[in-house]
Specification:
about 575 residues, alpha+beta, D-Maltodextrin-Binding Protein, domain 2, Dipeptide-binding Protein, domain 1, Dipeptide-binding Protein, domain 3, 7-stranded mixed β-sheet, 6-stranded mixed β-sheet, 15 helices, about 25% helix, globular
């Protein structure tokens, strides 16, 4: 299989030039484009779901001020230029950043885009009565103001050495105030029409949205670039599985693009041999990991307690947790579980050239990648057993399951329905069985697991299990906002409608201090040191066990040109430039 990875430097420039060669002509000249994401989107509002499928499908319609290209470099999008200290648009004391909107920007309904829309988006995501899946992008923001119709000033509570967070990247787009102004706080999830059909500035508009099924879109006639998009319409199909999605591009040709083909590498190679399409991939920061619940997930607990961090002092997360997990608050257990895993075998079986074994939550860029945890790369079952013995987890009743203080080492391990993930589960269960750990496997349809429905018991945010596995990453190259995901107050819980990024409910006052320090540190090497410290603190708490640094293998038809594979932003980031190959 020819797994094509992102090119850099002169090669990237040449590739980009080729991609833009076919930009002349009328908008919509290339007719229909068919895209398949086997995880079906449940909303087109990325502020109500942190799922990649929601963020990427929404990126066809709503856009940020700036985003990241395939090399991880920031490029202006709705903004005229990237602000800097040199031109005065980033304050010398780093307490504000000022963006200027491109002249003449219009929403797809023909109304002007103004700075007030950005102000509203900040108010929407930070409303005290609502839950926002992308709240970390607004960490440290004191206010957002409209200096005039085209000028947006973001003011920070303290000097912000890396001020490119709010409104940058596919996870932090601008919403139209006129459409969402009655959807603040607790009303946000109730605004179905807006959430399913946002009015945007992007190259496409929503004609029909069927949750967990299909999105029909057409070219935005008010899009700011003449002759773009080349495609008149898109069918964005969701659901099924990765194998069916791959076949639809590489064997049958029914679709032009298929996302996230987490399949046995040999299967993809056989499909690609048909000559209809090709597999493409890019590496960024995606890590397949295990989350070990730090709160009690016992099904007998009421909803206000199950998988909920309950502070000893009301409102003070750092005071401690009244509702700890009976097993995983002992880091020795997580350490043993990690040591028992053969990560390279998981790569060989499930990822091929699209994966690399990792011990880090933050594997890239190189400046931020720690080497302090690399002992996980070598499986050692006997060492894992020794760790558990030393920690007092032994089989006292001879039933084959270790126990301690009356608690058996018995866990529920869940993930989304996906062939590679089920293979991973089966192997991990086998290794853990050797340790004397009883493991119940569970998988949930991906559209539900990664959905944002606060009433569903099966979402990854609600985490009604002991362990869960999935991949996450961040847009851009600076990890400040990403590492802030594990602040104590970022945990999903009932009063946030189960929104929040701290999925495993990790809380450490020292970690929060590192987050605060990074937010005030400009020197790049020190930022790298802080990121490594935060990575190591989480990894060595064993509340997260990293497994695979994943590339993002997708497939495109040979007739589709202009695709610039990107793992630093939405894969669909430059869909305005996609076109039919001659």
């Amino acid at each position: 299989m020819r797994l094509r990875t992102v090119l850099y430097g002169a090669a990237a420039t040449a590739l980009a030039s080729a991609a833009f060669a076919q930009t002349d002509g009328e908008r919509g000249r290339d007719g229909q484009l068919n895209i398949i994401y086997w995880q079906a989107p449940s909303t087109l509002n990325p502020y109500l779901s942190g799922g990649t499928k929601e963020v990427e499908s929404a990126s066809l319609v709503i856009e940020p001020l700036a985003r990241y290209d395939e090399n991880g470099e920031m490029v202006p999008w709705l903004a005229e230029a990237i602000p800097s200290v040199d031109d005065g648009t980033v304050a010398e004391d780093l307490t504000s950043i000022t963006w200027t909107l491109k002249e003449g920007l219009e929403w797809s309904d023909g109304t002007p885009v103004t700075a007030e829309d950005a102000v509203f988006t900040w108010e929407y995501c930070t409303h005290p009565e609502g839950g926002c899946a992308q709240a970390s992008y607004f960490d440290g923001v004191a206010s957002v103001e409209a200096v005039d119709d085209r000028t947006i000033r973001v003011n920070f509570n303290a000097p912000k050495p890396f001020p490119y967070t709010a409104f940058v990247g596919s996870e932090s787009p601008i919403l139209q105030k006129a459409q969402f102004q009655d959807c603040l706080g607790t009303r946000a999830p109730e605004c179905t029409e807006a959430n399913f059909g946002p009015i945007g500035t992007g190259p496409f508009v929503v004609d029909e949205f069927r949750p967990n099924d299909v999105i029909l879109l057409s070219a935005n006639e008010n899009f700011r670039e003449e002759g773009k998009p080349a495609f008149a319409s898109i069918t964005f199909k969701g659901g099924g599985d990765a194998a069916a999605a791959a076949r639809a591009v590489l064997e049958t040709g029914e679709f032009d693009y298929a996302w996230n083909l987490q399949l046995d590498p040999s299967i993809l190679a056989d499909m690609e041999a048909q000559g209809i399409g090709e597999v493409i991939a890019a590496f960024g920061t995606s890590v397949e990991r295990l989350h070990l619940n730090q709160t009690n997930a016992d099904p007998s607990l009421p909803p206000e307690e199950r998988s909920v961090y309950i502070p000893v002092e009301e409102g003070n997360f750092q005071s401690g947790n009244q509702n700890p997990h009976p097993i995983f608050t002992d880091p020795a257990v997580g350490r043993a579980l990690s040591k028992a895993i053969d990560r390279q075998l998981l790569v060989d079986i499930g990822y091929g050239a699209g994966g690399q074994a990792t011990c880090n939550l933050l594997p890239a860029p190189e400046l931020y990648a720690s080497t302090a945890n690399d002992d996980c790369l070598v499986q050692d079952i006997e060492e894992a057993k020794r760790i558990l013995d030393e920690a007092g987890w032994t089989d006292t009743n001879g039933n084959g399951i270790r126990d301690k203080d009356g608690v058996e080492l018995s866990v529920t391990y869940q993930t989304s329905t996906n062939a590679v993930r089920q293979d991973t589960q089966a192997l991990v269960k086998q290794w853990w069985d050797e340790l004397g750990v009883e493991t119940e496997l569970r998988n949930v349809d991906a559209s539900v697991f990664f959905g944002g429905d606060p009433s569903s018991p099966d979402t990854f945010q609600k985490f009604y299990a002991d362990i869960e596995m999935y991949t996450n990453n961040f847009a851009g190259v600076d990890p400040e906002a990403y590492m802030a995901n594990w602040r104590c107050n970022a945990m999903p819980r009932p009063d946030t409608a189960w929104q929040g990024e701290n999925i495993q409910r990790f809380c450490d006052a020292e970690y929060d201090k590192l987050v605060d320090e990074m937010a005030q540190t400009a020197e790049l090497e020190r930022r790298g040191e802080l990121a490594k410290q935060m990575n190591d603190m989480i990894v060595q708490s064993y509340s997260i066990i990293p497994l695979i640094h994943r590339g993002s293998p997708s497939a495109k038809a040979n007739t589709l040109a202009g695709v610039r594979m990107n793992d630093w932003d939405s894969e669909l980031w430059n869909i305005k430039d996609w076109h039919r190959a001659e």
